[in-house]
């Protein structure tokens, strides 16, 4: 199966790299170009218990290579609606990846819903599950209507490249922050796990604060872009 993914990646990259301009590299091309070296160093760091270096390597890959690349125009399956092509979204995107077998932490989904209610007008929130449609039926009902629930699985047609690029590269849960032109603003790893002994309300607040810090990257970037456009006129 991994060989199949590799072949798909090679075919896709060979057809897309030539289409890029001289200033913007495609996210998938840049990721796969750096993935082998990153994975080797990262695996060694975690095998030796050096989690600090593991985090450093991830942050370095994101900041030095992936930020500023053009995120692929993936065509996502939506649970309640037709497919979503990312290029049709005119707002910045807050995309978080999950799996149905990973139980969300206490207060995690309510915190995300709260954020979507407050900023859904300016930012498109997307939750992408690495699973079959049937397995996310109950989970999809827990999210606010402002959040698009999508899914992808290795066995589905046209999902292989999406899965190999996003799921089998940097892992999950992962949050991808994209501006309105699909440029990568930041990528955040993991979700905080509040102490299970704290109250539900405090757990929601803790997760909300964490998500809000991620979102600030998009909001600040949007303000800066608006200021630059005004300065040109």
Automatic annotation (TrEMBL):
Leader sequence segment: 1-19
Domain Thioredoxin: start-end pairs: 65-220
Keyword Signal annotated: yes
Family annotation (SUPFAM superfamilies): Thioredoxin-like
A Pfam family this chain is assigned to: AhpC-TSA
Keywords: Signal
Protein name: Redoxin domain-containing protein
Species this chain originates from: Flavobacterium cerinum
